[in-house]
Amino acid sequence: MGNSGGEHAAGRVVVVGSANVDVVVDVPRHPRGGETILGGELRRSPGGKGANQAVAAARAGGADTVLVGALGRDDGAELLLRSLAGAGVRTDGVPRVGAPTGTALITVSTDGENAIVVAPGANDRVTVDDGARELIASADVVLAQLEIPVETVVAAAGARRPGVPFVLNAAPSRDLPDAVWRAVDVLVVNEHEAADLAGRGGENPAEEPSELARVLLSRVPAVVVTLGGEGSLVARRGRLDVRVPGIEVVAVDTTGAGDTFCGVLAAELARGVDLAEAARVAGVAGALAVTRPGAQEAAPHRAEVLATLRRHRG
Length: 314
Ligand code: RIB
Description:
Elements: E1 12-16, E2 20-27, E3 43-47, H1 49-59, E4 64-68, H2 75-87, E5 90-93, E6 102-109, E7 114-119, H3 130-136, E8 141-144, H4 150-158, E9 166-169, H5 178-183, E10 186-190, H6 191-197, H7 209-216, E11 222-226, E12 232-236, E13 242-244, H8 257-270, H9 275-289, H10 302-313
Parallel strand pairs: 1-4, 1-8, 2-6, 4-5, 8-9, 9-10, 10-11
Antiparallel strand pairs: 2-3, 6-7, 11-12, 12-13
This protein binds alpha-D-ribofuranose.
Alpha-D-ribofuranose binds at residues 18, 20, 22, 47-49, 52, 104, 116, 118, 147, 255-256, 258-259, 295.
């Protein structure tokens, strides 16, 4: 399957994950421990890896998208619901719970690099109840990350129909129980997360991504390692690795670019597109996302992704 977009009917992606209010300050550089620096104006914008990926799957991936998550009973929740609804994401799997909406404190430096601390709040209450189970059972692809309880990730994987791919974006990286490793069909990680999960954490990821992927393939059938501006590596058991080149862009804000990649990857897989081609489309969407500020606001529209893809294919 070499084609994506127009030639495959959109499928359904169910994202099980976090939603955060991103509280963002632009800084000339990230502060060192114990240091105070002055930044720019404070911005509040919709974020959270789960919600970002859902917005990207819907807007940039064109998928019928459902979010299973949790929000507080506060105005942060309203901000997120507006953004999700604007992108066409279904939110009946997102209850309002007795904890504040998740919040992420983000600094963005002049070169577009971010540093993030998350206060999970309501995200710690995301569960797979009967309603969520029914939604997950309707998915063509289930996509999760690690800003919610790991038991919920396991339950989400267990609720999908047989044969439906379970895609895990192992971010932020943490030790994974065997139940998660057993459930994963496609693992999406950046180089640092790949090194952590391959037991090489703490060092600079000096090892080649393909070496890290080899280690991870002993536990999951397919791995996508995202390489920032360099594109991505798609590694599958019993198949040659595919290096997907990046496209050149000027980075303004990298926040949420990985989430855009994951959401679009899942949307392409839900269309029945092959993993390497899905990574190509996702890479273009992720690259477009770094050219503008914010997380959900930065996710491009599908027409722009497909037009850029066509230009780069030549
Ligand atoms: O991946 C970017 C996201 O990480 C931000 O939107 C922030 O909320 C944190 O979850």
